[in-house]
Amino acid sequence: MDQKVETTRSPPPPVGPGARPPGHRPAVRLVIVASTVVLALVVALVVHAGRERPSGPPSVPRVAADYPFGPTSVWRTDLTAAPVDPASAPMVADLAKQVTDHYGGVAAFNVDGYTSSWYTVGADQAPVDVGFDNCQKKKWTPDGLLGAGGQFTDVPLPEDAAPSAGSDGQLTVYSPSQDRLWELWRVRKTDAGWTACWGGRIDRVSSSAGWFEDGFGASASGLAMSAGTVWVDDVRRGEINHALGLAILSPADWQRVRWPAQRSDGNNTDDHALPEGTRLRLDPTVDVASLRLTPLASLVARAAQRYGFIVTDQAGAVNIGAQTGQPLEEDPDFWKRAMGVVPSYSVLAGFPWDRLQVVEENFGRPVRATVP
What would the pLDDT profile of 291-305 be if each residue is shown by its tens digit? Predict the structure, then answer.
C-alpha cells in the first residue's frame, strides 16, 4: 500500500459490531507534520506521565488491570512460524480492499467508543444480578443466562462502571480472586439495576482458550473482545504481547466459521471472504522500522508479526480497539498523549495490510477443541 503523508478524508467515528455505517462529515485535511522520532518520544513519556491525577476514589477499591489470558489462550499463540493458508493471497486482497476503499484507505483505531471498557475488581466487590434486556426480540429467555449459576448472575459489577461509548455499550469485568471474566453487550444502568442484551462469563480464565462457550459472549464470534484490544499497559510497556481483534466490514457468510471463532454474524458469500475466526499475521520479513508508521501503529505491526490479528466481528469500518474504562480513571488523557498530534482515525495510516498472511486454520488447534 502506498505511503501517505497528506490525506483528504472524512474522519470516521469509531464503529463496532452491529453499528450503522457512519454518516457524512465535512472533509478534514490532515497533515502529519511530526516526525516519527518526536512521536516515539511522546509514547515513551506516557510511561511516566499522568499517573498522579486522581479523580476521586472509586466506590469500591480495585486492583491492577493485569492481562488475564494465559499461555493456553489463542490470544497468546506465537504465529511467527505458522504455515500460510493456500488461499492467503486472495483473502488478504479482499481485506486490503475493504481498507483502501473506505475512509481514505486508513483502518480505524477505536479509542473513543466501540471498544472494550475494562474493570478489574477486588475480592470485596459486591456481586449483582444483571437483568436481561431483550433488545434482539428473542421469543424466549436463553437457557443458562439467568438464575443459579447463570451468566448474568452474581456479577461483581462496580456501581460506577461505565460501558464503552456507542450503541454496543460493551463492558468487561475481571475478578482475579475468582479467576473469572465477564463481557456484557449493550449494558445499561436503570433505576432497577444493571441490564444487558447479551454477554457471558469465562470461568478459569487464566487457563482458558480465550472464547466463550455455548453461544455466550459480547462479540459476534464468541471470542473475548477485551483480549484483543490495545491495552494501556501495552503502550506503557512498549510491547503488545498478544493478538489483536480485527473487526471488518464484510466477513464471510455466518455458516463459514474458522476456529477459534465459535459463531459469526457475517453475510459475504464471496469465496475469498474472510470468515470470522481467521487469523492473520504481518509477513515476518517486513522491516517495521523502515515503514512510515506512527509509534502506536509500529507497536501494532510488531505484535501482528508475532501474535497476529483474529477476525472477531462485523463493523462499519475495518478497525482495532483501544482499552478504556478503569485504566483511564486516573489518567483520562492517556490516549491523547499516546497519539500525539495524530487523530485516532489516522493512527494506522500507512499500515501494510497487503503484506498480511492468512494463517492455516488448524495451526495450534487442540485435538478436542470446540468445533463451531
Answer: 999 999 999 999 999
